[in-house]
User: What shape does this take?
Amino acid sequence: MLALIDNLFPWFGDMLELGGDILLLIIIMAAVMWALILERVVFLFWVFPNKQKQLSALWQQREDMADWYTQHFRMLLVSRVNREMGRNLQLIGTIVKVCPLLGLLGTVMGMLEIFDALAVTGNNSARTTAGGVSKATVSTMAGMVVAISGLMISNYLIDKATAMKLVFQEKLTLDKHQEQNNA
Assistant: This one.
């Protein structure tokens, strides 16, 4: 698998060599995060509008709005929407928070590599410490890039999901009340 990736993207192996094993972990976390973000975007903009129409139609079939069972049915619909809207958002947020920490871990590992090279060679030449410095900076940069991009998108998705939940809740109450007032 790595040979195929190396043939398609020859720079990828060089980047992994510069950043070390932590960089590979950050890349995997970024791939998982963006897959989850893509799933949320598809759900919010394509799947949920259809689902909202179906749930609104179920709500419109109810006759007595003051009925205890009808109010609990509304609570059930709202609860389901809240659960579906929030799915994977916490996991995305967790990945956003973990990536800078992984970058920091890469920094520490790079610094340890520098100290090890200094101990083995006994001198402080730039050539001896270059590998550790690159490992430290590349992993830190990668962790921050993943976190910043994920933070911006996840905040947008959270805000969008919250707004869509509120609109749905209002729609369940307003639609039926408007019909009763018009009758």
Residues 21-182 form one domain. The two ends are 66 Å apart (CA to CA). The helical segments are 2-8, 10-19, 21-60, 68-86, 89-121, 126-182.
